[in-house]
């Protein structure tokens, strides 16, 4: 049985003696269809046949199984994610400690180099005194009269002393330049290591926060594209 077409007039009369008479009303685009009692019972018998009810029960059972399986899979994935988070937290904690040890070691090295630089500068200043004395002795010897202007052993030793002091100063200055260059390199390396330590601290803080979350947490929000790899992400091997 199909509904009456939209061409029906839809005129309906009612009297206390005859009840409702006339044509069933029809509304354009939204038809009101009326079925007889026999048609309603026939439809119920068709709907409630064992074949249909068995199919509905089977669908209900399958739906429950699918829901249970979905929850089991979700719990398994949640446990796996928690284990991976715990392992990553352990790795981050280990590497953070290693970075801290490296920062402390390079800080001690910079302090040692700074002490050596101060010693080298002090040594260069101290060398000025024996050199000045030797040069003054040589200059005073030049004031002798010509018969006494001789290159004796004393003058030879003074010349050697001036040359040795000059060579020592040159070695000290070269060493001082190398120390200052090494200090600059160490400070740059320390800045890079401290930046890496800061990144690891942020990552460790986030992972520890994530480890406390669960499907029942009220802080969880749904965002589009959260499973995508960000552009600045690195592989585990590179990290």
Topology:
Blueprint: E1 12-15, E2 19-22, H1 37-47, H2 50-141, H3 153-211
Antiparallel strand pairs: 1-2
Could you list some keywords that capture this structure?
Helix Hairpins; mainly alpha; 3 helices; 239 residues; two-stranded antiparallel ribbon; disordered N terminus
Detailed description of the structure:
The protein is mainly alpha-helical. The protein contains three helices and two strands. The chain has a two-stranded antiparallel ribbon with strand order 1-2. Keywords: Cell projection, Cilium, Coiled coil, Cytoplasm, Flagellum. One of its GO terms (cellular component) is microtubule cytoskeleton. Belongs to the tektin family.
Uncertain stretches: 1-8
What is the mean predicted local confidence, pLDDT?
Answer: 80
Radius of gyration: 48 Å
Which H/E pattern describes the elements?
EEHHH
Q: Kindly report the CATH topology of the domain at 86-210.
A: Helix Hairpins
Specify the helix fraction band. Answer: 55-70%
Beta-strand content estimate: under 5%
Number of continuous helical runs: 3
Helix- and strand-based class? mainly alpha
Q: Note the main sheet.
A: 2 strands, antiparallel
Distance between the termini: 71 Å
Strand order of the largest sheet: 1-2
Keywords: Cell projection, Cilium, Coiled coil, Cytoplasm, Flagellum
Protein name: Tektin
Subcellular location: Cytoplasm, Cytoskeleton, Cilium axoneme
Organism: Pteronymia andreas andreas
Quick overview of this protein structure:
This is Tektin. Helices cover 68% and strands 3% of the residues. The protein is mostly helical.
